[in-house]
Amino acid sequence: MSKHIISASEMERYGYCPLSWHLDLKGIDAEGEEVTSGVEKHKEIGTSLTNLLVEEKKSRETSSTLLTVVGMIMAVVTIALFILWISTDSLRVNLGVILLIIGIGWMLVASFFLYKLLVSTEKIDKLRDDYKLGEETIETPDGLTDDTPILKSTKYNLAGRPDFIIKKDEDRIPVEIKTGRPPKAPFFSHVLQIGAYCLLTEETFGKKPPMGHIRYGIDNSPHEVIWDAKLKNLVIDKLEEMNDILAGKMEAHRNHKRAGKCNSCSRRKNCPERLEYN
Ligand code: SF4
Fold it and tell me: Is the Cβ atom of 19 under 6 angstroms away from ligand 1?
């Protein structure tokens, strides 16, 4: 049997409660309205990002077509001037009319592509403003961009897909989008998950990311989670625990005494260790 590879989203589950992660591994699904609406919202976010990337790709293609058309116009003008220069007076008038028609035709084609480019740029600017993305290059791990990041680490038995990656000069910053109500500070489990993405980014690209971003809603400003030695050690410690549980060297149990946490847990119905309010 192939070895189970731990995903970064499993680390989030483990960070919430090790037993919740283990129940999920045993096939006990999360339940509740929040889970369903979270999945739906995440899908919508994915579609919005896809739209943005598709639009940017189209814009790049239109821009290169426009450049080709402008090049053609320049070539036609040069040839026309040369022919007019060497031709006789009687030919000059007829040739002049033909070349004028060709020239107007190419100008119309160029205007069409220029218009397409302007519409596309406007759409992109709006989407980027809505999502507070600035000018940064974004990559997604779904094959839409040419430089598709596959994030995995054999060393830590870990794999994962952040929602997207910001490429800033030589740095890559993984971004995870959460759909719940924005808290004042990111939850521990979310920090652990973005830490897992930072570890994967470091392993995959061979360069330490300065931080990861957690966004509560795509249109909210990101929380910056600094990828320092403390967070890296924490992520590696938790991964070791998870790998030990998978290898049967350790058992997964509830690691807290908070009835409120169990009450909000999406696996409480089938959990043998859940806490109840007195
Ligand atoms: S109900 Fe409580 S103990 Fe059980 S998995 Fe959820 S948080 Fe953990």
Answer: yes
Distance from the alpha carbon of residue 241 to the mean position of ligand 1, in angstroms: 18
**79-107 per-position pLDDT tens digit:** 878 877 887 777 777 777 887 888 888 88
Query: Cα of 191 to ligand 1 centre, how many Å?
Result: 19
The CA distance from 256 to 161, in Å, is: 29
Question: What does the alpha-carbon distance between residue 189 and residue 67 come to, in Å, rounded to a whole number?
Answer: 49
**Helix, strand, coil fractions of the chain, as percent rounded to 5:** 55, 10, 30
Pocket probe for ligand 1: among 13, 20, 21, the residue whose CB has the most ligand atoms within 8 Å is 20
State pTM to two decimals: 0.81
261 Cα nearest atom in ligand 1: 7
Q: Is the CB of 17 under 6 A from ligand 1?
A: yes
Burial 92-129 (b: 16+ CB within 10 A, else e): eeeeeeebeebeeebeeebeebeebbeebeebbeebbe
Q: Residue 164: enclosing H or E segment and its boundaries?
A: strand 164-168
Q: Which two tokens stand for residue 272?
A: 């043998």
CB 50 within 8 A of CB 144: yes
pLDDT digits (tens, 9 = 90+) for 120-173: 899 888 888 887 888 888 876 554 444 445 688 999 999 998 988 998 888 999
Instruction: Report how far ligand 1's centroid is from the alpha carbon of 250 (Å).
Output: 18
Does ligand 1 have an atom closer than 6 angstroms to the CB of 261? Answer: yes
Tokens 């795509």 correspond to: 218
